[in-house]
Amino acid sequence: MCLHRLFYNQRAAGLLLLLSISLVAATRCIADDLSTHSAPLQRDTPASLVDQGRLRDQAIHILGGNANVISRWIDEVRYVLVGHPRHIPVVNKTLVEISTLTQVPVRSVDLHSADLISNEIVFRQAGVNLLCEKNTGCANFVVVVADIAQMKEIASAAQLRRVYRRALDEENVLCFFAPFQSASIIRQALVFVRSDQSEAMLNTCLREEIYQSFGLFNDYTDSEFFSFNNSVEPKSITQYDRHLLRAVYKFKAGTPAFSVVQRFMRDLGPDQDLE
Hints:
- Mean pLDDT is about 75; it is low at about 1-45 and about 115-130.
- About 30% of the residues are buried.
- This protein folds into 2 domains: about 50-70 and about 220-270, no CATH class; about 75-215, Collagenase (Catalytic Domain) (3-Layer(aba) Sandwich).
- It has 9 helices and 7 strands, in the order ααβαβαβββααββααα.
- The strands form 2 sheets. Strands 2-1-5-7-6 form a 5-stranded mixed β-sheet. Strands 3-4 form a two-stranded antiparallel sheet.
- The radius of gyration is 29 Å and the shape is globular.
- It is of the alpha/beta class.
- Helix 3 (about 90-100) packs parallel to helix 7.
């Protein structure tokens, strides 16, 4: 009886030992498997798997939501700067970069910008806001660097939407863009940047508002990828901004936003640096 019990105890102990070894091995396998499958999630790149949902959600929001369609330019952008000539290099560089991304041609219209405000010739033809010069044609993209008082004059002449006029009345706006579009095609745009701010913030405003006026209409508060995130500080255009704008211009005006975002996410890949 004692031997019988000892045999079974030994056999039970052996089984327990084998079970313990098996559990340890299984645990190691599971741990190895988890570490292997978790590896992409440990990467710092914003385009890793853990961030795919946020990237997609933010892109959809920026383009107006799943039910929205994209707006874009299709014609040549003819631009003029109303303001101090020292801002011309930033405007030129930004628009050349955008032209490279979108394949939309851009060119400067040679207007005497110092006279534009004083003579109130801003936005006079057909009620659709054009600046024209006899030899070089009409500007359809106007960048204004001015103080609030001057901008209010322009807002009145341009018949800007109430939301912009209200912001100017409250004097709490540093910069904004106002697109004029029909059938999802951007025909004209106005960019306003207040002149009474630091040079770094002024240049940030110029770059961001020019970029957004090409179809990236919505800000995304506190975005870690998108530079137009409502933070009032000097910033640079990010790779996320560039990739999303490029994706928009691979499609026709009026394409559903979700189709553009699908292409954007597919082109992005898992290892793309977005900063």
